[in-house]
Inverse folding.
């Protein structure tokens, strides 16, 4: 079993490290937020006070950070991973970040003698707790094979998406498609109600018809229809608007960099932006239904 350095012990990092410990690994964890470190320590993570201490003697270093700028500074900044990890250490970044940052980290890590794999995940906080995340790995064959062993205790599915940055590319395209389907399910829910259809009856029809989609099955934004929907709990986040907005924004930036125009993604992005502007960044992204009908059932009236 290995000694693993882990940087970023937030909503995802905390349950993920718990599963690595359950698999018998030793995990040295660091986070800027002392409360996050203390919470992880309750699960058996060895709490440390710096990146240097987290990577000391580690065979593998994971990062699970909010955005590209955080992943860049943790790896490349003064006192960062590249400065203190032993050459040859396998670096695995599971944050969802822009493809440009992922490629910059691959290049810098390789130049400094490290193996680097971009390894974003899908499955949310519940998948992290259950150890059933989908991992999308990007990098050289040998590095990805090495990474596979370490991600397995946290994973339901592990894919080698392709070369450097391919994991991030797969993740942001997937989440862009999710946001577009969600917009469709929200518009459908409003139109069905306004046309006088019973919510459950319409859902039963669409669910076995061509209007079916993952958000319809999982997040249908009307209370009392789908058990896992945030609509049942005042739209408290299962996947926060801020994160969905970030991911679609990353997809839009990726599209711009390759000269592609994505009209439906733009609509989905604008609707998430409106929720952010209206003060709902921390609420569930299925609250996009509010933009179409502010008085839809279950929508917070404040
Ligand atoms: P989070 O904000 O709960 O956790 C991030 C942690 O990183 C925080 O505890 C923060 O203090 C720490 N951090 C930030 N900068 C740091 C630094 N310089 N040094 C050390 N620690 C630092 O976020 P999360 O929900 O755990 O998400 C992490 C990543 O996973 C994001 O990129 C997110 O998009 C992605 N993701 C999240 C979900 C989800 O459902 N929450 C699902 C899939 C992917």
């Amino acid at each position: 079993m290995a000694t693993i350095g882990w940087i970023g012990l937030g909503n995802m990092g905390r349950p993920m490290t718990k599963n690595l410990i359950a698999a018998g690994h030793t995990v040295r964890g660091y986070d800027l937020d002392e409360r996050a470190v203390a919470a992880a320590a309750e699960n058996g993570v060895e709490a440390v006070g710096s990146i240097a201490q987290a990577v000391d003697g580690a065979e593998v270093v994971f990062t699970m950070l909010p955005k590209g700028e955080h992943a860049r500074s943790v790896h490349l900044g003064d006192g960062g991973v590249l400065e203190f990890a032993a050459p040859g250490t396998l670096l695995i970044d599971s944050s969802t970040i822009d493809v440009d940052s992922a490629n910059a980290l691959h290049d810098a890590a390789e130049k400094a003698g490290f193996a680097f794999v971009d390894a974003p995940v899908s499955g949310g906080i519940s998948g992290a707790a259950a150890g059933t995340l989908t991992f999308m790995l990007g990098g050289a064959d040998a590095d990805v094979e090495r990474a596979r062993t370490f991600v397995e205790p946290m994973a339901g599915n592990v894919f080698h998406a392709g070369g450097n940055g391919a994991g991030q590319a797969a993740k942001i395209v997937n989440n862009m498609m999710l946001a577009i389907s969600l917009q469709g399910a929200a518009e459908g829910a409003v139109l069905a109600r306004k046309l006088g259809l019973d919510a459950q009856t319409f859902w039963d029809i669409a669910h076995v018809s061509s209007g079916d989609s993952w958000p319809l099955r999982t997040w249908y934004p009307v209370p009392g229809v789908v058990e896992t929907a945030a609509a049942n709990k005042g739209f408290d986040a299962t996947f926060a608007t801020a994160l969905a907005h970030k991911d679609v924004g990353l997809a839009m930036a990726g599209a711009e960099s390759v000269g592609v125009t994505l009209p439906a993604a733009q609509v989905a992005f604008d609707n998430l932006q409106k929720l952010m502007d209206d003060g709902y960044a921390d609420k569930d992204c299925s609250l996009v239904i509010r933009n179409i009908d502010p008085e839809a059932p279950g929508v917070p009236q404040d």
About this structure: The CA atoms of residues 176 and 248 lie 5 Å apart. Residues 7-13, 30-33, 36, 64-66, 70, 73-74, 95-96, 121, 124-125, 239, 243 surround nicotinamide-adenine-dinucleotide (CB under 6 Å). The mean pLDDT is 97.
